[in-house]
């Protein structure tokens, strides 16, 4: 039995190792671009496709290299991380060149000038940067130079609730519109687009706060690629092509929203129908939800399976040690596993597995299954162990008297009863797990929650996408509860 357990463990380790050494970074025939596609006109979504100035520049370069362009869309504050960990070749995301960033990545020559601007509600008393210092609630996108500027010059208290970071500029502007913020600071071109789209409620102040330059970021070792991109940028500038790219994308970025803002004055029902249409029907946005739903189901299912396998193994090892004193080493190992997994937040574990342990694994779903499976296994283990402990000691003795070995008694007598006793607690754990997968967006995986976020950032509507996502999670959990109810009744009947 010991040998079998070892075998299972080794299998698991092998699995991890295999996917760790899978793809040796991104050579081959692709050029991987990492970006954060909520930054019009530099990068944004048009009919589910990632487009924009940055995308056009990199696509042009990829074409010249004869490589296929692969795009990773993630949160802006992990864009540079993707370069540092080798998950992408180039980062183009309206990235401002800063000394701090130069310590970690290298930059091409700049391709755009930029500045931080202030957006305020119409009729706001804020007229410039001095007014921002008067106890105002200010929003910005997290991980950006807007944040750095505000932190250094406007709100220096690190714990002040006045400075609020949002995942995308659009969400910050939404918060501004509904009165949760007094100002938003963001890059000039996105500010122009967003203030045009929201012209009824929001204005951009004319005074820039900073002067910045955008460049493409790459690994410090990629000097050849950097030189190549430098020539590409120089060429695009000289031929006037860059200007054209900027113009066409600026036009497109404003057009993408126009359809949405026309109607509004109808009755409540009409408004509801319009919102439903723009959030789910227009641009086939329901496909985000459907795709996200499938991912969530897939991740939850495999994570539950892995969790059960791990949980059973750990529980059996620990209770065997408790009862017989055997398997001491394995039992210690299991205790460490339980302590570490239950002592750290799931989202941190997910990030560690994605960025450190399975650094070169591109299959995000696999990463998520492993992370959530390992996490859930720890809780399942304790649930099962409590089940095993609840079984009367006499049963082991009875098994013994019948001539069964310890393991035979464990597998055929104890575990089935333990399982029945802990089924409600296990069900609870699975319910928690399904909802826990909603943090998958942290590794840029488009699960159900992330799908809602994407729609929200395109339509600037919080209500519909969030309600839809919540309703689907609720339905999943209710379905699972129903299944577990059936299983419980079956087991009872067999008693
Ligand atoms: N230029 C700013 C910076 O480098 C903001 C860039 C945000 N880009 C984005 N794709 N969201 O920090």
Q: If you had to describe this structure to a student in words, what would you say it looks like?
A:
It is a single chain. The model is unreliable at 5-26 and 259-266 (pLDDT under 50). The chain is elongated. The protein has three domains: 24-111 and 215-256, 3-Layer(aba) Sandwich (D-Maltodextrin-Binding Protein, domain 2); 112-212, 3-Layer(aba) Sandwich (D-Maltodextrin-Binding Protein, domain 2); 286-493, MetI-like (MetI-like fold), CATH 1.10.3720.10. It has 495 residues and is of the alpha/beta class. It is built from 19 helices and 14 strands. Helices cover 61% and strands 11% of the residues. The two termini are 28 Å apart. The strands form four sheets. Strands 4-1-5-14-6 form a five-stranded mixed β-sheet. Helix 8 (188-197) runs parallel beside helix 10 and helix 17 (406-436) runs antiparallel to helix 19. Arginine is lined by residues 36, 38-39, 43, 76, 93-96, 114, 141, 144-145, 187.
Overview in brief:
The protein is α/β, with parallel strands linked by helices.
Total count of strands: 14
Low-confidence stretches: 5-26, 259-266
CA gyration radius, whole angstroms = 27 Å
* Name given to the CATH homologous superfamily of the largest domain: MetI-like
Give the termini separation.
28 Å
Strand content: 5-15%
Q: What is the domain total for the residues?
A: 3
User: What's the helix count?
Assistant: 19
- CATH topology name of the largest domain: MetI-like fold
Bound molecules: arginine
In percent, how helical is the residue content? 55-70%
In spatial order, strands of the major sheet run 4-1-5-14-6
Overall spatial form: elongated
- In CATH, the architecture of the largest domain is Orthogonal Bundle
Report the sheet with the most strands, covering strand number, pairing sense and barrel closure: 5 strands, mixed
Residue-averaged pLDDT, rounded?
89
Please state the structural category. Answer: alpha/beta
Kindly provide the name of the CATH class of the largest domain. Mainly Alpha
